[in-house]
Design brief:
This protein is an alpha+beta fold. The chain is built from 17 helices and 41 strands. Strands 13-12-9-10-11-14-21-19 form an eight-stranded antiparallel sheet, sandwiched between helices. Strands 25-26-27-28-30-31-32-33 form an eight-stranded antiparallel beta barrel. A hairpin with a 2-residue loop joins strand 29 and strand 30. The longest helix has 29 residues, at about 460-490. Mean pLDDT is about 90; it is low at about 590-600. It binds adenosine-5'-diphosphate (2 copies) and magnesium ion.
């Protein structure tokens, strides 16, 4: 098992992927050197590596993207190779070249292959030559609007403007009619120039309701190439993946073989070595088209590892060390189903804006078939400087529905506090009936979700199960209070313990009457919610770290519950609701206070997220209209335009470009109305 060729490698990355690579190295007996910026001095990846090199200030361009410094560190720590992870320098051909010129091995493909495949126009051409189907579109960058109009006449609307140098969904624009073309082209150019210092745009037909299906390949330097099945990553927001799975419900064995062999052809044509991913879209008629090839390990690689039983990082290292692939296509077998949820520091209810802060509580799920790859722990600081990905939760099961249930249960037990995350959003996605049915497309989220919430109401049965959990926690707390009062003064409440407890639970527009038998010796409760009966078993009633495990009618469930003054906020299967619990008497007395919502025209523009101001487009005295852009804020690689929420005259502008701002900080004020 021991991999002798590299005694020690440097990992040019951070977060969960750095830890993931360390894990494999430790198993193979390879020493590891981590790198870290000032912002990451106390990160888990730094502690877990055998050594660590400090490389600079938090800003990525001066630390994780500082090629000279990283190579210098690799040499001074006696490393033999560099693993770039994903993101950062992983697809930077120049970096790969510099690594090799320093006498180190780059754990990835050759600089030539990275350069060729990193350019979407060049890789499209390569695909055409290799007989790989591409989306109808242009072979050359677009010179201007006139040419774009000619193209539009050939391929028709809608079409997609794509940056040749793009990645991470940046700079792409869908154009549905001729009138939008000029401004869309301008915007796409601008964004790609800023993001990638390149403004070449090409055009593809926009395929409606496609699925995103990608093939994982593995190639060695001797010309052996195998495919390790597909991954479906159709659940996306802003062209970024949210949930990934393998196999895909849309791919059968003949299609898998066809796509797999096509991907291998492309890899061969590119002279590719190492792990790579060929991305395709699959249209509703079953035709697939090449999108791009990612020349690195992918965020979603764990699902492939779960069903193939392979360690992709190990394979990458062995190939980079010059070993031939030890497996042939016939050796690759796919077992069961695996699904991954990305947990990001983002608020799905606020346009998926990034969130930041200190992780105040952190508890991850465990269990059969559950894998968690995370980059943080309690006390970690999540900053604006890096990607919002915090952790990945992966579930593996025999069938798709097994994997979904396991993943959902694991997410129920995922407790991260300190700022908003996508845990419950991801859970709502995998519980959505359309997801369960495997009815996916890249429009899934637009079609089924709004402001981070499912467009359909929660299932009543789930609300009833939640009512039971909430009542048990509420009742237990009340009993403890009563007991302690009784101890202090034995007459209080004596003889009040009834045989059956009645509660009224109010959630959304539902009112549930819950009855619980008081005697729960042996950890068994009998209860009813409305006309439904439940047997609840909890050998030891454990409400630990805000998590409660209950077996209800023979199935075990994990709930997360949190007191909010008198009410309880509960999280389960993506449902997040505040439950009000009353005794019947309290309920009868309770009159609903309907607070009048007074419409006040605010004079302050508050900052919606933490970040850096990149531009201010208005000055005191300007009259602005509702919806007009006021300024721009960049956070976690994403630039967001902040629009005016009202008409009015600007009074004061309190921020300037390059200034760091925080959520709710006042950015500018309007003249009083
Ligand atoms: P995919 O999501 O298909 O793996 P992307 O090109 O969108 O591919 O980016 C890969 C991943 O790398 C992103 O999802 C993100 O988590 C991470 N990433 C990209 N750029 C950076 C960066 N500058 N810093 C940290 N992580 C990054
Ligand atoms: P990136 O480098 O940003 O990942 P991709 O070419 O891989 O760019 O595209 C990202 C996503 O954009 C795809 O997963 C898909 O959802 C969508 N997409 C790309 N090209 C098309 C197309 N021609 N038609 C429809 N959707 C597309
Ligand atoms: Mg892509």
């Amino acid at each position: 098992m021991r991999c002798r060729v590299f005694e020690r490698i440097l990992i040019a990355n951070r977060g969960e992927i750095a830890r993931r690579i360390i894990k494999t190295c430790a198993r193979l007996g390879i020493g590891t050197v981590a790198i870290y910026s000032q912002a990451d001095a106390r990160s888990p990846h730094v502690e877990e590596a055998d050594d660590a090199a400090f490389i600079g200030p938090p800003v990525a361009t001066e630390s994780y993207l500082n090629r000279e410094k990283i190579i210098e560190a690799a040499i001074s720590f006696g490393c033999r190779a560099v693993h770039p992870g994903y993101g950062f320098l992983s697809e930077n051909a120049e970096f790969a070249r510099m690594v090799e010129q320093s006498g180190l091995a780059f754990i990835g493909p050759s600089p030539e292959a990275i350069a060729l495949l990193g350019d979407k126009i060049a890789s499209r051409e390569l695909a055409l030559k290799a007989g790989v189907p591409v989306v109808p579109g242009t072979q050359e960058p677009i010179a201007g609007v006139d040419e774009a109009i000619v193209v539009a006449e050939q391929i028709g609307f809608p079409m997609l403007l794509k940056p040749a140098a793009g990645g991470g969904g940046r700079g792409m624009r869908v154009v549905r009619e001729k009138d939008e073309l000029a401004s869309a082209l301008e915007a796409a150019r601008d964004e790609t120039r800023k993001g990638f210092a390149d403004d070449r745009i090409f055009i593809e037909r926009y395929v409606e309701r496609p699925r995103h299906i990608e093939i994982q390949i593995m190639a060695d330097t001797f010309g052996n190439v195998v495919y390790l099945g597909e991954r479906e990553c159709s659940v996306q927001r802003r062209y970024q993946k949210v949930i990934e799975e393998t196999p895909s419900p849309a791919v059968d064995e003949p299609l898998r073989r066809h796509m797999g062999e096509t991907a291998c052809e492309l890899a061969r044509a590119a002279g590719y070595a190492g792990a790579g991913t060929v991305e395709f879209i699959l249209d509703p008629a079953g035709n697939f088209y090449f999108l791009e090839m990612n020349t690195r390990l992918q965020v979603e690689h764990p699902v492939t590892e779960e069903v193939t039983g392979l360690d992709l990082v190990e394979l990458q290292i062995r190939v980079a060390a010059g070993e031939p692939l030890a497996l042939r296509q016939a050796d690759v077998s796919l077992n069961g189903w695996a699904i991954e949820a990305r947990i990001c520091a983002e608020d799905p209810s606020r346009g998926s804006f990034p969130t930041t802060g200190i992780v105040t509580r952190f508890a991850m799920p465990r269990g059969t078939g559950v894998r968690v790859d995370s980059g943080i722990r309690a006390g970690s600081l999540v900053t604006i400087y890096y990607d919002s990905l915090l952790a990945k939760v992966i579930a593996h099961g025999e069938t798709r529905i097994d994997a979904i249930r396991r993943l959902s249960k694991a997410l129920n037990g995922c407790h991260i506090e300190g700022f908003a995350t996508t845990v419950d959003f991801a859970n709502a996605v995998v519980n959505h009936p359309a997801f369960v049915a495997g009815d996916l497309s890249t429009h899934f989220l637009e079609e089924h979700f709004q402001d981070g919430e499912s467009k359909i109401p929660p299932r009543e049965e789930d609300l009833r199960l939640l009512s039971i959990a909430v009542v048990l926690v509420y009742h237990t707390r009340q009993s403890l209070v009563r007991e302690s009062l009784r101890e202090a003064s034995p007459r209080v409440g004596a003889g009040e313990e009834a045989r059956v407890h009645h509660y009224v639970v109010n959630v959304d527009a539902h009112v549930f009457e819950v009855e619980m038998e008081a005697d729960f010796s042996g950890g068994v409760w009998y209860g009813t919610v409305g006309e439904f009966s439940y047997k609840v078993v909890t050998p030891k009633f454990e409400y630990y770290r805000r998590r409660l495990k209950l077996n209800i009618n023979g199935t075990s469930h994990t709930f997360r519950l949190q007191y909010e003054e008198n009410h309880i906020r509960a999280f389960y299967c993506g449902i997040v609701r505040t439950f009000e619990v009353y005794t019947p008497r309290e309920w009868a007395l309770a009159h609903h206070m309907i607070r009048e919502r007074v419409e006040v025209l605010e004079n302050f523009l508050k900052c919606p997220m933490p970040g850096l101001v990149t531009a201010v487009s208005v000055a005191p005295g300007d009259y602005v209209r509702r919806g007009q852009e006021l300024l721009r804020i960049e956070s976690m690689k994403m630039e967001t335009a902040i629009a005016s929420f009202r008409d009015g005259e600007i009074d004061r502008v309190l921020v300037q470009p390059k200034q760091a701002v925080d959520t709710d900080e006042i950015l500018l004020t309007f003249k009083g109305s």
